[in-house]
Write a structure and sequence with these properties.
The complex is a heterodimer of chains A (about 200) and B (about 725). Chain A is of the alpha/beta class. Chain A is built from nine helices and eight strands. Chain A has an eight-stranded mixed beta sheet, sandwiched between helices. In chain A, helix 2 (about 40-55) crosses helix 4.
């Protein structure tokens, strides 16, 4: 053992205590970690790049591109990833020559979200993780006819009606786009851009 | 080579011209072509900002290039690492350092984060013995350079992390049949499904495969070998040749049989992985005899990994991982030579080595996002493990099957603990710092500390400059420490320290739209490498008097930390796409100057390790339902043979291997095919085989299968 007994004993004690502490913490806050596979900073880069290809962005944004990050206050993951998104957005200067303004919004209901989007001149809406199927479908319904590029942190959000979603396959980021929702939310992307995405009809 | 050069030049030209032609989407293509890795810091991040040189090989690349094993994927598609094939086995090295005979112990192999290197001999295979069906692989991450900071032992040359597919990318049932004609056949069944389980999104992927190979039959030079030193007369090597004659066609003992299965279940924060593998192979020169089918090597693995991750609040994420593994090894080595056997076994013997390891552990981990925006993150983890290892060697008399009892038998219970901490800090958006260290304490060898410091600078658009210092170690194996043979070897025992490596490297990566250039320099210093060392007269006498060796033992050895390596060199790579991603290409080059030294000896070259290696590839997806065409080439420079010594300076000539592949859909929806052709320009490898020739000429080199066609079919049902 050459003098490692003491160190080993201390580490085993640390391990036992760590496990016990984690077990208690897990029981106290049983929120399974969301599986956000594409780093949020990369999601923001991709989101703004896609926005720059949207032919209606300039008309929608006016002088500045307002990007709203919506999250759920009662979901630790949602707030955590929203924080990362806001940090990443704060480091962006412009999109297509227009300055970027990042906003955060605590989700209360879909109608309120749609109202905020419409009245606040939000051009891009990023939905953090933590939303259920019903909530996402409600958001999609509420945004029907609202000119906004809505995007979700997870690819499966696209299946529930957000325009854009982020996936990881083959160790590379992938974009999912819901084409029907894009049309209904006045998001117009060229065929060469759509060719780079997985299109959900 | 000329044709290949022209093709690459054309590809590069097309790539650059496409930047101008497809200006509108090349930036987006470039972003979508970024590799995302998680092994370097246990966090998903862009490879360009990870605190290590990181390379990723995608499932698409694996499929397009007709890749069948991990060693092929690395050799044809990666940068920095390279493998040498010795028959069916592949020996892994990186950046000019390859330690022949180490059974993969200087690279840590992970499957979805679960360490594969076993507890007895640290074995990990990159050939048919990896134990993960290729269709199930989503991507392979390579972390080049010391990586013990988060993973502990074995990550000296780097870390290879195999990440399996998600159910969404492997949905339905899959039937796969493929063959390298006519020598082998692989059949596999896979399944993937997403579903709801206990109110959570859940998914399951699994695949089972069976692989059988007989051949190829390669010819070995036939020559007269030295007489048996014990009997003084020529000994038989095979039934097909008269006594004293070695060589001929290797048509009996060239075989592989492998069964593997992998299952992964995810539900919410819970992940469960199960892996099983049986891998048996033999080859004509792996024996005291020639082409003896009764000599073989067999490995069996069974692994389970359960992880549960929770988010505690905006700042804290926690996970606990439980894991357990079983591994056993058997090698049967038949010889008709009395010199290979014990006294009295003049007609020959079967040498049988049995090894085993069982280990289980728990790894809690805490992730603290101090500013709740991922700019300052601390990762803390503890990995505690209990191990049981053992092995024995028997010499069974060839005539009556009797044995005098096991030699060097041991059975040990061990404990190991590792504690690690890593801080990642991005004080400004263009500068990232990563500082970490891991402390390992192990009842087998003592302790080891593995620090790492890395800085990433993003000085201008698309550029990433990295400076990295890292240390790593390899714990001595159970064999190194405990094995003893009273006739020839005393145990390494408590004298053996972990092998260590320090590395300093700098690199610059620049992205231009969908083109990417990488250049890096590195230097590494290895110390305390374990080698078999002959005892001096005093040590021999002491070992005899203490009973470790039999009386009258003329000479004996001990494994000791006696060797150092100094290596430095460059890496370079270029990757890109054109025509909307239909045309993809890449090339890489690594050159290293590597010297190994022992006390009292002059430094010399490292056997089998190629100073220069690289690869180039191109693939083109034809439009509509037409196939994808792909061509890849791999190059290794002139390199010393495995038996190289200052008084025996032998080299293998450079080798170039080509791989052409055609893949696409067939007739029915879900049915696809791939056709491959492999060609190696040189018909021998850097390993000497066979008995010593009577005329004292050099031993022959291992033959290489130079040309092989392959065909594969896959049928995807109920996607």
């Amino acid at each position: 053992m050459r003098g490692v007994d003491a160190a080993s004993s201390r580490l085993w004690l640390l391990l036992r205590r760590s496990c016990a502490a984690l077990f208690i913490l897990c029981l106290a806050a049983p929120v399974a970690a969301e599986d956000v596979s594409v780093p949020v900073s990369l999601q923001m880069e991709l989101l703004l790049k896609v926005a720059s290809y949207d032919k209606n962005l300039k008309q929608r944004a006016g002088e500045r591109v307002r990007v709203a990050v919506v999250f759920k206050l009662d979901d630790a993951d949602s707030a955590r990833y929203a924080g990362q998104a806001l940090k990443a957005l704060s480091e962006v200067d412009d999109v297509s020559g227009m300055p970027v303004e990042a906003l955060s919004l605590i989700y209360s209901d879909a109608a309120g979200l749609a109202r905020f989007t419409r009245e606040g001149g939000v051009a891009v809406l990023y939905v953090a993780p933590g939303f259920g199927e019903t909530e996402l479908e409600g958001i999609a319904q509420a945004l029907d006819g609202v000119s906004v590029l809505s995007a979700g942190a997870l690819a499966k959000y696209t299946l529930r009606g957000l325009v854009l979603g982020f996936d990881l396959a083959g160790g590379k980021p992938k974009l999912w786009v819901h084409l029907a929702r894009a049309r209904r939310q006045s998001v117009e992307l060229s065929s060469s851009v759509l060719k780079l995405m997985r299109v959900i009809e | 080579m000329k044709a290949l050069s022209s093709l690459l030049a054309l590809a590069l030209g097309l790539g650059f011209s496409s930047v101008a032609a497809a200006e509108d989407t090349s930036d987006l293509e470039g972003l979508l072509d970024q590799d995302v890795v998680s092994a370097a810091s246990k966090t998903a991040e862009a490879a360009s900002t990870a605190p290590a040189m990181s390379v990723s090989i995608s499932a698409d690349e694996i499929r397009e290039h007709g890749i069948r094993t991990i060693d092929e994927a690395i050799n044809f598609l990666a940068m920095g690492m390279q493998l040498e094939k010795f028959y069916h086995a592949a020996e892994i090295g990186a950046r000019g350092v390859l330690l022949s005979g180490d059974v993969g112990a200087h690279v840590l192999l992970l499957v979805d984060g679960h360490a594969v290197n076993e507890a007895w001999g640290a074995t990990a295979y990159y050939d048919r013995g990896t134990g993960v069906p290729m269709e199930l692989i989503d991507h392979i991450e390579l972390i080049i350079g010391p990586g013990s900071v988060l993973y502990g032992s074995n990550a000296m040359l780097g870390v290879v992390n195999i990440v399996t597919r998600r159910a969404k990318d492997f949905a339905g049932a899959h039937v796969i049949v493929e063959s390298e004609l006519p020598i082998n056949l692989r059949a596999a069944l896979g399944y993937g499904r997403e579903f709801r389980w206990f109110g959570q999104d859940a998914e399951l992927v699994l695949e089972l495969e069976q692989f059988e190979q007989r051949g190829p039959t390669l010819d070995y030079p036939i020559y007269e070998a030295v007489p048996d030193p014990v009997t003084g007369v020529p000994r038989p090597y095979s039934a097909e040749q008269p006594p004293g004659i070695w060589g001929g066609p290797g048509d009996d003992a060239s075989s592989i049989s492998g069964s593997a299965g992998y299952l992964r279940l995810r539900s919410g924060g819970l992940q469960i992985g199960l892996r099983g593998m049986l891998y048996r192979r033999s080859h004509p020169a792996d024996s005291g005899n020639f082409d003896d089918p009764d000599s073989f090597v067999r490995d069996r693995w069974l692994s389970a990994d359960i992880k549960y991750a929770v988010t505690l609040d905006e700042m804290l994420q926690a996970s606990v991982r439980l894991y357990g593994d079983h591994y056993d090894f058997r090698q049967d080595w038949l010889s008709f030579g009395a010199a290979d056997c014990l006294e009295g076994q003049d007609s020959g013997c079967m040498w049988r080595l049995m090894g085993r390891g069982n280990w289980a552990g728990v790894e809690p981990q805490l992730d603290i996002d101090w500013l709740q925006d991922h700019s300052l993150v601390t990762l803390i983890g503890v990995d505690g493990r209990i191990k049981n290892v053992g092995s024995d060697v028997n010499y069974y008399d060839y005539l009556d099957g009797s044995s005098e009892g096991p030699i060097g038998a041991f059975e040990k219970n061990e404990q190991a603990l590792g504690a690690y901490v890593q801080n990642t800090y991005w004080p400004v958006s263009v500068l990232g710092l990563n500082l970490g260290a891991r402390f390992d304490a192990d009842s087998r060898f003592g302790h080891a500390l593995s620090p790492r410091a890395a800085a990433t600078l993003l000085p201008w658009t698309g550029a990433a400059f990295k400076l990295i210092y890292a240390e790593a170690f390899r714990a001595p194996t159970a064999w190194d420490v405990y094995y003893t043979d009273p006739r020839s070897q005393i145990a390494g025992g408590s004298h053996i320290e972990p092998e260590g490596v320090r590395s300093l490297e700098a690199s610059l990566e620049q992205r231009f739209g969908n083109q990417r250039v990488f250049a890096g320099v590195f230097r590494s210093w290895w110390q305390d490498l374990v080698l078999l060392t002959e005892l001096n007269d005093q040590e021999l006498a002491a070992a005899i008097s203490s009973g470790e060796l039999l009386p009258d033992t003329p000479a004996a050895n001990q494994l000791r930390n006696v060797s150092d390596i100094d290596s430095y060199g460059i890496n370079a790579g270029y990757y890109g796409a054109a025509l909307g991603g239909s045309l993809r290409y890449g090339l890489s080059l690594t050159h290293a100057v590597t010297r190994i030294s022992e006390p009292g000896g002059a430094s010399t070259v490292l056997p089998v390790a190629a100073p220069t290696s690289g690869n180039a590839r191109i693939s083109f997806s034809l439009p509509n339902e037409l196939p994808t065409l792909a061509l890849a080439a791999r190059f290794v420079s002139r390199r010393p043979l495995d038996e190289y010594a200052p008084d025996n300076e032998r080299y293998a000539d450079p080798q170039v291997e080509l791989r052409a592949a055609v893949s696409g859909g067939l007739l029915l929806p879900g049915l696809s095919y791939r056709l491959t052709a492999n060609y190696a320009f040189l018909d021998v490898g850097p390993y000497a085989v066979g008995a010593p020739p009577l005329d004292e000429s050099p031993r022959p080199l291992v033959p290489v299968d130079t040309f092989r066609l392959g065909v594969g079919l896959q049928y995807d049902l109920f996607p």
